[in-house]
Structures are given as structure tokens and as C-alpha cells.
Design brief:
Elements lengths: L16 H5 L1 H4 L9 H18 L3 E8 L2 E7 L12 E3 L6 H8 L3 E3 L20 E8 L5 E9 L7 H45 L11 E2 L5 E2 L1 H8 L10 H7 L8
Helix pairs in contact: 3-5
Amino acid sequence: MAWPEPDVYLGGPECGALGFETMEENEQNIHFEISGDILDKWQNIVDILSGLIGIPAALIMRLAKSDIEVFVSSQSEGNPYHAGDHENFIGSGLYCETVINTKDKLLVTNALADEKWKNNPDIKLNMVSYLGFPILQPDGKTFGTICVLDNKENAYSATYEDLILNFRDMIQSHLELIYMNNVLGGQNKQLIDYIAEIKILRGFIPICSFCKKIRDDEGYWQALEIYMSKHIEAKFSHGVCPVCIKEHYPEFRGRS
């Protein structure tokens, strides 16, 4: 399901230049593989929020290339949003677009009574109040939002705000752990590769006494640079040392 098209797009208070100039900054350069265990925790978060606040919808939204997507949706009665629902991000007019562009909280107590929000797409889903916060990646870019929506006017108490912020911080901690695991995994792979290279170089390497070719494990003779480039992360460039210049290119002797 995609959001319905608004009759008139006003874009909210922070759109216009902001909406079209910040998408590149907010694109996710980090690829997050969210495990089933973490997804279950996130599902529990939105279910707790919808139950405690008494609202039909609590969501975790994420940026997915040029779209904004419902990543996790509360299993609550009257929730019109489903995981996988998506809309083009730029110019969507969604509440979450403003949260992501400003990287700040957005509270809309009653969109129907607000000139800036009365035509946003969520109105057609009967979601007239909204409270949302940005979810940031470890690199400071925006992953998405955590938000709650109601089908009636709702100012949301300071206690509810604190609750959402604490859950937001928990989600950001999960993203940091995923990021660090990916970084450490890459470093471990590099370490394993280096150890393998060292083992190769520590062994006896059969080399021709005349042409300096090296015999590989399959019995083939290869040029030194070809053999080394296959076994270690090194590339060779060719030049001529000063001694060989004197021997093979005497006409260049004495030139700098």
C-alpha cells in the first residue's frame, strides 16, 4: 500500500528548498542487515508504544534509496500502515519527511486545524496527530524515524515523549552494534588474509637461478611479479634502477 496522493501539497513547514536539497545527505551509505532477533525487539517497541499511549499506529520508518518505507508497524487495532508500505521521499508531504530533513522532533497535535498540515497524505488515512523523532546512524546520517500517530487530536504528554526517545536511543544502539560488527568482521577478514600471506612468504619458494621465475604449487613457472600479485595484496610497477641505467642505457648516464 502506498499513501494516497494529497489534493494539494503544501509540504509542511520545513519543506521547499530543504526537501529537495537534503536527500543526498540523508541517503544511507551504510548497509544494515537487521537480524530477526533485532526485528522482534523493534516490533515489541512499537507494540508497547501503541498500547501504552492508546493510539492506532506506532511506526519505525526507514529511508530506502529514494523512498521512505514502513519498516516496522505496530500490531494494533485500526493501524492503516503495514510493513513494506513505501512512498517516494522527496516531496511526499509526509510528517516523517520533515523529521528527516530537520533531524528534529515534530509534533502535530491536530493537522485538520493546522494550515501547514491539513492536506498531508496521512489525513486520508485518518491520522490527524503525529509525534516523531529521527533515528540516526553511527555516521550521523538519518536511518529513518520512530513515530506515533492518532486518529484524533493528541498533544502527547512529556512522559510519552521521554518514552519514545528512550526507545529511539535503544534502536540507535542496535544500529551501532550492527555497524561495529560489520567493521570488525571486515577487519578480521583482512587479518586472516594477512596471516595467509605471511605463511606463503615464510615457506620455501622455488625460484629459477637465471630468469628469477617462481614455480607455483601446480608446477608452472611464473614471473616474480605475477606470482607475488596473486598471493599478496600488492601491485608492481616497473622502472629502471640507477645501476641498470648505466649498464643498459649509457647514453642517459649523468642525466637527472
